[in-house]
Design goal:
Layout: E1 5-7, E2 21-24, H1 26-35, E3 43-47, E4 52-62, E5 66-76, E6 83-89, H2 95-106, E7 110-114, H3 125-145, E8 153-154, H4 160-168, E9 172-176, E10 182-183, E11 194-199, H5 207-215, E12 219-222, H6 230-244
Parallel strand pairs: 1-3, 6-7, 6-11, 7-8, 9-11, 9-12, 10-12
Antiparallel strand pairs: 2-5, 3-4, 4-5
Length: 249
């Protein structure tokens, strides 16, 4: 089994090199000591979630929330190419967190919450901020669970107009749609740059939204003969693209 991953502050690994003894405390230290029950000699990976990581072993444990890591090696992962963003319409209930979790575990690079016109769920005021915080926390935990060094960015929620601007800036943009005439499996994909996929809500993407996205350069594509839920379509599409682009090679 691969070593468990723990998140440290951004830039905390700057200047860390083999032989460094790095202290891990706070919530992550508590999780390592009291939940995972790591002991001296066990392997551990530290990451800032931005592609920088340090592999080492537990050198000392003290109290319920502090351990010291003897660093054996450090590495930095460049941003993968092509970069894959999924624009995820807001699902009902906790299906949003499910979508974020599985897309993160699969390997998506960025997730954009989208307030589509046919979304039953709407993020407004404090509720919206709490929901966004849940999505971001889910991405962090799923990033650690899947042993990633680079966690996906979860942006602020966007309107249709804002999503159209993101699509216009992509090297390849697509709207997953059951009536799309072209399979995503046969679409021409760039080797570098940004791929952006739009996943609509339970009620589907409205004609007005499809028109706005088409004007921005995003056309409808279908995944397969079955119709997936909004909470699973992004994960399936991400897996397909990771395989086709060689990132799962």
């Amino acid at each position: 089994m691969t070593a468990p991953v723990f998140l440290v502050e951004e830039d905390a690994l700057t200047g860390v090199f083999p032989g460094t003894v790095f202290p891990l405390d706070g919530p992550e230290g508590r999780h390592a000591v009291s939940v995972r029950r790591l002991r001296v000699g066990e392997e551990i990976v530290l990451t800032d979630g931005h592609g920088n990581g340090a592999h080492g072993t537990v050198a000392a444990v003290s109290g319920k929330d502090h351990l010291e890591v003897s660093v054996d090696s450090v590495r930095s992962e460049p941003e993968p190419q092509p970069h894959i963003t999924v624009v995820q319409a807001l699902p009902k209930g906790d299906r949003g967190e499910l979508a974020v979790e599985t897309m993160t575990e699969t390997g998506v690079d960025a997730i954009v919450p989208w307030a589509a016109s046919r979304c039953v769920t709407q993020w407004k005021g404090d509720r919206g901020q709490k929901s966004l915080a849940k999505w971001r926390a889910t991405a962090r935990e799923a990033g650690k669970q899947s042993r990633r060094l680079r966690f996906p960015e979860v942006t602020d929620a966007m309107t249709t107009k804002q999503v159209a601007a993101v699509l216009a800036d992509a090297e390849f943009a697509a709207v997953l749609h059951e009536e799309g005439s072209t399979p995503l499996a046969t679409a021409g994909l760039p080797a570098t740059g940004r791929i952006v996929l739009v996943v609509g809500p339970e009620g589907g993407v409205s004609p007005e939204e499809l028109a706005a996205f088409a004007e921005a350069g995003a056309h409808p594509y279908r995944l397969g003969p079955s119709v997936l839920r909004t909470s699973t379509a992004g994960t399936a599409a991400t897996a397909l693209l990771l395989g086709r682009t060689g990132r799962w090679g």
